[in-house]
Amino acid sequence: DIYRASTTAPVNIAVIKYWGKRDPKLNLPTNSSLSVTLSQADLRTHTTASCSASYPKEDTLLLNGTPQDVSGARTQACFRELRALRTQLEGSDSSVPKLATLPLKIVSENNFPTAAGLASSAAGFAALVRAIANLYKLPSSPTDLSRIARQGSGSACRSLFGGYVGWEQGSASDGSDSVAFQVAPASHWPTMRAVILVVSAAKKGVSSTTGMQTTVATSSLFASRASETVPRRMAEMQKAIQEKDFEAFGKVTMMDSNSFHATCLDTYPPIFYLNDVSRAAIKVVESINAAAGRIVAAYTFDAGPNAVVYYLEENEKDVAGLFKSILEEKDGWKGARGEKIEAQGA
Ligand code: DP6
Questions:
Q1: Which of the ends of the chain has fewer CB neighbours closer than 10 A, N or C?
Q2: Measured from the CB, is residue 17 less than 6 Å from ligand 1?
């Protein structure tokens, strides 16, 4: 017999960034974070998990057709946790098939460039964890699954929910309270949109994992970001979302992106994720907002040069329109693609 289950998980783009681990093994963060889950139609990972006694003994993972190493601690942690829950379910009930001990075969497809700073690990681990949970018919809640997905990649815990999603840093040393939670469903503020400016689809220079470890060890800005700036902004951001206040949402989004990249520059040796095209994108957003006389567009950058610009549907013409005309006109933007993504939840 072959047992099989499939799922998809969307990409999320943080507006308050996770940067720093207090426990690198469990991916326990030094600050809470908050993201918007993008529409599944645009950026997502589709994953099928299967298991069978007829499979070769080793677990396997295929990503976009290429075999991946599953021996890493993060993938192993996810497999181990899910198998333990399945073993519990099987108990001594002989009518429940014994799946926990069977080899797993995971097949994943992204519909976007991997490791381009487009949060591919987030959608990837979220889909992997949910696919196996479905395969094992686990009664686990999204919160439970977020605790497992976090161990695969920190930001993955936020992709288990749609809409506006927080990740509570927690304080327990075993990570039991470091989980994702939904701040609001996508339907609460359905006119939110995002355009992604793909400056480079190349693999990023410094991985988030390495980068944040170096930041924690060397940056003097880091401590105040984690202990003062982010906690304050988490509260401001949740209020902005509750009140659907785009000006507040946009301002906090841009300031937190700037704070994160300043902390990267303050790392020794310094980490540069933004390039000249990224900085030009910031200028474009500033000119859009200056022309509107208020904040109608907000940029944010993860661990790479690609800009994500949030805006409301009613300002589509001003924001996405201006970006498109600039992309067509300016030589410096050659190779950059504007991709419109609907920032609606799962
Ligand atoms: C800048 O979740 O990729 O995108 O836990 O080491 O896998 P690991 O890191 P990862 O880091 C994401 C960093 C970020 C900010 C964010 O998504 O919150």
A1: N
A2: yes
